[in-house]
Amino acid sequence: MTDENPQQPFDEAEYRRRQRVRANLMGWILGGLAFLFFFITMARMVVPT
Amino acid sequence: MAQSLTHGEMSLPADWRDLFALTKPRVMSLVVFTALCGLLAAPGSVHPVLAFSSILAIALGAGASGALNQWYEATIDAKMKRTANRPLPAGRLDRQTALQFGVGLAAFSVFLMLFAANWQAAVLLTVSILFYVFIYTMWLKPRTPQNIVIGGAAGAFPPLIGWVAATGSVAPLPIALFLLIFLWTPPHFWALALFVRSDYAAAGIPMMPVVAGERATRRQILFYAIVMAAAAIAPWPLGYTGALYGWTATILSALFVLLSAQVGLRSAGADDRMQPEKRLFAFSIAYLFILFGAVVADHWLPL
Q1: What is the 3-state secondary structure (H, E, C) of chain B?
Q2: Does the record's keyword annotation contain NAD (chain B) (predicted)?
Q3: Domain locations in chain B?
């Protein structure tokens, strides 16, 4: 598999791109979760247990 | 595996698309749909935010199971044409990342279920993830041709979890839905195994066609299809569903048995294109989608 091609050059532009995309994605996911947990808390307050 | 992406001490961070692929999105779509149907068919009403969060938790749990399955089976996947291009066997992702991703996602899904629904649903979600990873992937799959039969229970959990998330308790209808997916799994996967048989043989997985032979597999497909049809129709005469579901289940199950009979009562030649098997496999997916849709329609639009 990968050992057949050990000399593949390291692509720094690709490294930066992936870091940027992952940071953006993580930001959106964490933001979304903050909203979700807020709305779950609100919903649980109006729904009788 | 990750060496192709490394240079000195640095390695490329995983691409999000590869992490997404680890979750087996196509399998997840069926899981989400059946879980949603279980939740919508339950009596009473659920707050939309809590319903959404519960389904999200089930989807994440399924994704975690898929990721852990691919983590464990990376070397097997590399031997099969159908799976060789997955992120791990293709070398686009390292196993450590996949393991961390899977465990993290599993823990988060259970926490979300606990927070949004109830502890009963969270326990069921935990059991389903552990069952899929430890009982099916690690124990049964590499050891016995009955792997699909018992392992089918893992895929049968979502409608039950959806129902329990809405009500906090188990009832006969979600158990019937559990049974339906449980009995649907063998003919569905064995139809696939018949036309990718060489793949499974190359990977050394003891799937039914590889171990017991094609003829025995075909007979078993027909047997399970008949039992599954009975289980699919049963909720109607037992009074758990109405006529809308009843007629849908009767007609579609008859078709399922007919297609299974075409597979079960024939033997394939050397250059066979396996059309009846491919037809049964495709129909089995549509069958489950339509039947679960009918359960919900029957609940909301009783005839």
Answers
A1: CHHHHEECCEECCCCHHHHHHHCCHHHHHHHHHHHHHHHHHCCCCCCHHHHHHHHHHHHHHHHHHHHHHHHHCHHHHHHCCCCCCCCCCCCCCCHHHHHHHHHHHHHHHHHHHHHHCCHHHHHHHHHHHHHHHHHHHHHHCCCCCCHHHHHHHHHHHHHHHHHHHHHCCCCHHHHHHHHHHHHHHHHHHHHHHHHCHHHHHHHCCCCHHHHCCHHHHHHHHHHHHHHHHHHHHCCCCCCCCCHHHHHHHHHHHHHHHHHHHHHHCCCCCCCCCCHHHHHHHHHHHHHHHHHHHHHHHHHHCCC
A2: no
A3: 15-168, 171-298
pTM above 0.80, yes or no: yes
Residues 131-150 of B with CB under 8 A from A: none
Name which residue leads in pLDDT, B123 or B202.
B123
Interface predicted TM-score (ipTM): 0.76
- The closest CB to that of A3, out of B3, B12, B89, belongs to B3
Give the pLDDT mean for B97-120. Answer: 96
Determine contact: B282 vs chain A, CB below 8 A.
Answer: no
Question: Residue B2's closest chain A neighbor by CA?
Answer: A2
The domain ranges of chain A are 15-48
Is the domain spanning B15-168 CATH 1.10.357.140? The answer is yes
